[in-house]
Amino acid sequence: MSTKKTCLITGITGMVGSHLLDFLLANTDWEIYGLSRWRSPMDNLQHHISRINNKDRVQLIHGDLRDSLSLDHAVRQAKPDYVFHLAAQSFPKTSFDAPLETYDTNIQGTERLLAALRKYSPEAVIHVCASSEVFGRVPREKLPINEECTFHPASPYAISKVGTDLIGRYYAEAFDMTVMTTRMFTHTGPRRGDVFAESTFAKQIALIEQNRIPPVVKVGNLDSLRTWADVRDAVRAYYMMVTINPTPGAYYNIGGTHICSVKDMLDTLLSYSTVKNIHVEMDPERLRPIDADLQVPDTTKFESHTGWKPEISFETTMRDLLDYWRQRVSTQGDFLTR
Fold first, then answer.
1. Residue 145 falls within a domain, yes or no?
2. Residue 2: what pLDDT?
């Protein structure tokens, strides 16, 4: 009888899920099941398609967080020892236009998934991914933000992640399940969706370098202060959390160490461009009605528990993100201007 561990990754086709898959294939012998919708784009998994086709340690299971029967089926099939719940409606700006979809996917979807796990895999070690956006608008005197900082969400997305966070902790306390929640601060890198600031900036710069658009980068709020981490450091943190003395009901802030404004981040990307006359233009459509503007974490609790430290520099992350978009722009057709 095989003793090989299995895991289930929801949101495996996203930036974080695909990098987590990379990490687990390279650093474990686990059998990996990924929850995906039939319409989920496979771009981020392209380099693993052969393995997926051959069911070589990776299998995709059709499922949707808004369909509890599909989640029951996925959990029964995977029988996971570990679960990484990463799937979400993850775009804060979109959540202002589609709050009910956001709440249903992120709050009720988490409830549906944990209910399925309670029925079919109650012994699993489960990571529920909330977000630093739960803290929202934090007064400067409360920086850096620790785990006990008051929630003050600044978008329907952030509100939904408060629900995600609390549901995870509730299942741990009420049903004696090993569920842990994370509030990961800004993390980025290759495969970051182009609806996020740093990725749309990198995409626009890559398009400018190919003479596909005029030398103008359109921006939203540049004043927000962020702490930046690399997605590859983030997935290593998630792995360490579920494998190093996992503590039921624990909740952690995780983030990088490089603190700068969105403007400083843009200036860094512009400094890497081969085009030196790029202008910056405010686009009102890129502004949120309200913004979380002081996102600086205290990660002492998580680092003390696991020994994790970020290893990839901000400059490397930004260069890799820009190179990712250069590669995509050079091989694809038109892109949406967003």
1. yes
2. 54
Same domain, 80 and 220: no
Residues 80 and 211 in one domain: no
Question: Do residues 27 and 51 touch, judged by C-beta distance below 8 A?
Answer: no
Residue 182: enclosing H or E segment and its boundaries?
A: strand 178-184
Residue reference for tokens 């549901």: 167
* Structure tokens given for 36: 């995906």
The answer to whether the beta carbons of residues 171 and 178 sit under 8 Å apart is: no
Distance CA 270, CA 217 (A): 10
- Name residues of the chain where pLDDT drops below 50: 1
Query: Is residue 186 within 8 Å of 320, Cβ to Cβ?
Result: no
Tokens of 319: 């260069």
R_g over Cα of the chain: 20
What's the rounded Cα separation, in Å, for the pair 69 and 52?
A: 23
Answer whether residue 337 is part of any domain: no
Token output for 32: 């990996």
DSSP class of 338: -
The answer to whether 186 and 226 are in contact (CB under 8 A) is yes
Predicted structure pTM score = 0.97
Do residues 78 and 100 both lie within one domain?
A: yes
Structural domain boundaries, residue 164 = 6-188+230-254
